[in-house]
Amino acid sequence: MPVKSALYVVATPIGNLNDISLRALEILAHVDVIAAEHIQNSRHLLSHHSVSTSGTKLVALHQHNEVTAANKIVAFLTEGKSVALITDAGTPAISDPGSILVQHVRQHGFAVIPVPGANAAICALSAAGMTEPHFLFYGFLPAKSGLRRRELKTLASLPYPIIFYEAPHRIQESLKDMAATLGAQRQLTIARELTKLFETIHVCALGEAIPWMEADTHQQKGEFVLLVSGAAIRDKSEISGQTQNTLKILMHELPLKQAVKLTAEISGEPKKTLYQLALSMKA
After folding, report:
1. In which band, very low, low, confident or very high, does the pLDDT at 234 lie, cut at 50, 70 and 90?
2. 98-112, 134-148, 256-270: which range is least confident on average?
3. CB-based contact 281:239 (threshold 8 Å)
4. Which residues contact 44 (CB under 8 A, 6 or more apart)?
5. What span, in angstroms and rounded, lies between the C-alpha atoms of 274 and 265?
6. Contact 11, 119 (CB under 8 A)
7. Taking 90 as the threshold, does the pLDDT of residue 98 lie above it?
8. Residue 283: is its pLDDT beyond 80?
9. Which tens digit of pLDDT belongs to each residue from 179-226?
10. Cα separation, 96 vs 63, whole angstroms
């Protein structure tokens, strides 16, 4: 049974309604209040799993009212009620509303209990076949092309895969900006409509994505997860053995960033290059 005066952050399916945990269903069936991004969508999920809401209060919490709704939920918790937070799909607060509420609840001293489940980024990563031990989850890029390209430039030198979310009306423009900024040769995994009827997972070079998408307009629809491979790590043979040894010694004694900075000052090598080398050594 749910704990009184606690907020449960409950993951819900991203497509297939059966991708929900037994624990999540139990919590949703017994809490006093459910805060939902769109109440009608949530009623459909609950009805599908025969979860009755006759004795449960449903309140809307979305990106436009999260602060106001957070105050209401804190009031419910103060009264000793249990609350579950859900969004339309996936894990709350991951490119979805919820982080402001969680912060607000914690500031008032109430417990926040995660109930894990579906997440589009991890779902896509598990099927992409990328072998790197690290990745960066970015989420949604800026909507305007100029800002988007500027942001992509800051990510261009990172040596690990980057995961983006994108909406259908921006997918082609975003892919064009990625190819122009990150390089057309990088590997791209397009994960579209994950766990839904028309799920597609396609791997290609970043520069080949637009022609592939234009060949079938159906591939331009739905919600997208894009996984772009990291920047190629410069061949160690291009960096002198002495510099590599210096970096290795300093990494044993200092934090990675400080070791890279000092090695760059000693050797004259670019910090970005040495940072990539340091990450590969550490991995």
Report:
1. low
2. 256-270
3. no
4. none
5. 11
6. yes
7. yes
8. no
9. 999 999 999 999 999 999 999 999 999 999 999 999 999 999 999 999
10. 8
Q: pLDDT band at residue 111, thresholds of 50, 70 and 90?
A: very high
Tokens of 266: 């000693």
The radius of gyration computed from the CA coordinates of the chain, to the nearest angstrom, equals: 23
What is the per-residue burial (b if ≥16 Cβ within 10 Å, else e) of 213-245? beeeeebeebbbbbbbbbbeebeeeebeeebbe
List C-alpha distances in Å: 168 to 51, 141, 259: 32, 13, 43
**CA 81 to each of CA 51, 78, 229, 256: distance values in angstroms, whole numbers, following the listed order:** 19, 7, 46, 46
pLDDT at 139 over 90: yes
3-state class (DSSP) for residue 157: coil
Residue 47 to residue 56: CA distance in whole angstroms? 13
For residue 145, give the amino acid letter: S
> Region 33-41: what's the mean pLDDT?
97
H-assigned helices in the chain: 22-30, 39-48, 66-78, 99-107, 120-126, 145-155, 171-182, 209-214, 241-253, 256-267, 271-282
Cα angle vertex 111, ends 107, 112, to 5°? 90
**Cα separations (Å) of 211 from 179, 217, 225?**
12, 11, 18
Q: CB of 36 within 8 A of CB of 86?
A: yes
For residues 237 and 196, the answer to whether their CB atoms sit within 8 Å is no
Contact indicator for 15, 223 with CB cutoff of 8 Å = no
How confident is the model over 270-278, as a mean pLDDT?
85
